[in-house]
Backbone:
């Protein structure tokens, strides 16, 4: 009986945590990182900071939604397959319900012609930029990127931004990062 109550508590905690993340963050995956880190690492202790950074790197490399990818990894670690499902649903459900409500009650013309809604969206934009920049700066430090190694992410970002054929494909840099990490860190391990 006690195990069943404990399991239900874990599932409820996973669902509510990821539902909060899904409901109260705007701007996509990068805007969610600070809130996810606070909830997953600081509040619940489900992952260490290093594990969170590793999961973030893996989640960005995988296809799909960043927040769902991290939710799935955390849910799996904490409660296996059921935890995965509960965490993913918690992340997806709030956005789905909000978009459904908007689609039912607001037409595109109502949104475009409503000065209150237009003002709200104009106010959200700078906040989203700040939500994206904050984890970028924090993770920059934690990833051990120095001014010498900054050339790699800055160069990749500029090449992606250039829109040149082939070199502007982000998949190229994911593959190069995987290969470079395997080669560089694999050689370090062999040297030990």
Residues:
């Amino acid at each position: 009986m006690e195990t069943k109550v404990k399991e239900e508590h874990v599932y409820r905690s996973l669902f509510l945590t990821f539902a909060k993340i899904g409901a109260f963050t705007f701007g996509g995956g990068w805007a969610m990182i600070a809130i996810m880190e606070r909830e997953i690492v600081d509040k619940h202790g489900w992952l260490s900071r290093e594990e969170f950074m590793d999961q973030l790197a893996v989640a960005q490399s995988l296809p799909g939604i960043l927040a769902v990818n991290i939710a799935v990894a955390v849910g799996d670690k904490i409660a296996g397959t059921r935890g995965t499902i509960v965490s993913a649903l918690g992340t997806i459900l709030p956005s789905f319900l909000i978009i459904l409500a908007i689609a039912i009650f607001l037409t595109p013309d109502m949104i475009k012609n409503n000065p209150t809604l237009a003002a709200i969206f104009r106010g959200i934009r700078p906040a989203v930029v700040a939500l994206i920049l904050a984890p970028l700066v924090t993770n920059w430090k934690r990833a051990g990127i120095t001014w010498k190694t900054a050339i790699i992410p800055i160069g990749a970002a500029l090449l992606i931004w250039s829109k040149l054929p082939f070199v502007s494909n982000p998949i190229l840099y994911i593959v190069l990062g995987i290969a470079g990490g395997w080669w560089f860190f694999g050689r370090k391990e062999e040297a030990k």
Remarks:
- The radius of gyration is 20 Å.
- Residues 66-105 form the longest helix (40 residues).
